[in-house]
Design a protein that fits this description.
The structure holds two protein chains of two kinds. Chain A is 79% helix and 0% strand. Chain A is built from six helices and no strands. Chain A has a single domain, classed as Arp2/3 complex 21 kDa subunit ARPC3 (Orthogonal Bundle). Chain A is an all-alpha fold. Chain B is 25% helix and 37% strand. In chain B, the strands form two sheets. In chain B, strands 2-1-7-6 form a four-stranded antiparallel β-sheet. A three-stranded antiparallel β-sheet of chain B has the order 3-4-5. In chain B, strand 6 and strand 7 form a beta hairpin. Classes of the chains: A mainly alpha, B alpha+beta. At the A-B interface, helix 4, helix 5 and helix 6 of A face helix 1 of B. Bound molecules: zinc ion.
């Protein structure tokens, strides 16, 4: 149990750091939500290993911490909604055995951005909806790239991951 | 590595976004005459785009100039709002997520 808690905390801090750095790295691009979503690799990897409790704990902790540290109620609502939509897409596609992480993550990225805009629309900022086509496209393409990276990573370090989880 | 199903998935998603682009293009966009400023989810003010003015907010400065509105200054970490440029068409927005400021043309 203690081992699990420390592993979850470690993964959470890692995901938090990655998403923060990524936010800085891509901030010169004038499109909100332009991110590779590398932090979500942690979540996706755990989902694919059927570690559902771990995936949800780590992702939720990251989102809450990120909102507390750098955000506000709105960024929290946007990320939560994005995470719910992308997790559903990822979980659904994991049921089909024909996809690698690339295809799964492409859908995850697209629906993450869809979820963010859905929250925006609900929170009385429906004007943001005109961004939907662009963000859907960006989410799919960047998600695909992220998924390819994750696929390569998990091929290479699969044994290591088996050891620590 | 990348499987056939992955490529098909990506193509489908790109196709969906192209469809969404097409739908957005079909909705006519006209120049608006009012700028609505929303702070923390509540409407803060609405101003005519025809009158040049400066709107000071706690963390941002909004400018209306020659019928366009834009974010001139912001203390947010990402400055995405400043990079979003000038808006004047109905439905266009500039968003500063960190400070929860939204500019929308109506
Ligand atoms: Zn800003």
């Amino acid at each position: 149990m203690a081992k699990k808690i420390s592993l979850y905390s470690l993964l959470t801090v890692f995901a938090l750091l990655v998403s923060y750095l990524e936010g800085i790295a891509f901030s010169f691009i004038p499109v909100p939500a332009f991110k590779l979503g590398l932090a979500n690799c942690v979540c996706m990897l755990l989902f694919s290993r059927k570690e559902y409790a771990a995936a949800i704990t780590v992702n939720l902790s990251r989102i809450l911490l990120s909102a507390l540290l750098f955000g506000n109620f709105y960024s929290l609502a946007f990320s939560l909604s994005g995470a719910i939509f992308s997790s559903l897409a990822v979980l659904l596609l994991l049921k089909f055995k024909c996809f690698s992480f690339a295809g799964i993550s492409a859908a995850g990225g697209a629906f993450h951005n869809f979820g963010q805009l859905a929250a925006a629309a609900l929170l009385n900022t429906a004007g943001l909806l005109y961004l939907l086509p662009l963000l859907f496209l960006v989410g799919a393409v960047l998600g695909f790239i992220t998924g390819m990276l994750l696929e390569a990573f998990s091929k290479k370090y699969g044994n290591l991951i088996n050891k620590i989880t | 590595m990348v499987k056939k199903a992955d490529v098909i998935m990506l193509i489908c998603l790109v196709f969906v976004s192209l469809l969404l682009f097409a739908v957005m293009l079909l909705i006519p966009k006209n120049s608006g005459d009012t700028l609505v400023v929303t702070v923390d989810g509540k409407e803060y003010c609405r101003l005519p785009l025809s009158v040049d003015t400066e709107i000071p907010l706690s963390g941002n400065t909004v400018i209306i100039e020659n019928g366009y509105a834009y974010m001139k200054n912001a203390n947010c970490p990402d400055k995405i709002c400043i990079n979003q440029g000038k808006i004047n068409k109905i439905g266009q927005t500039v968003v500063c997520l960190p400070n929860s400021v939204i500019l929308e043309v109506e």
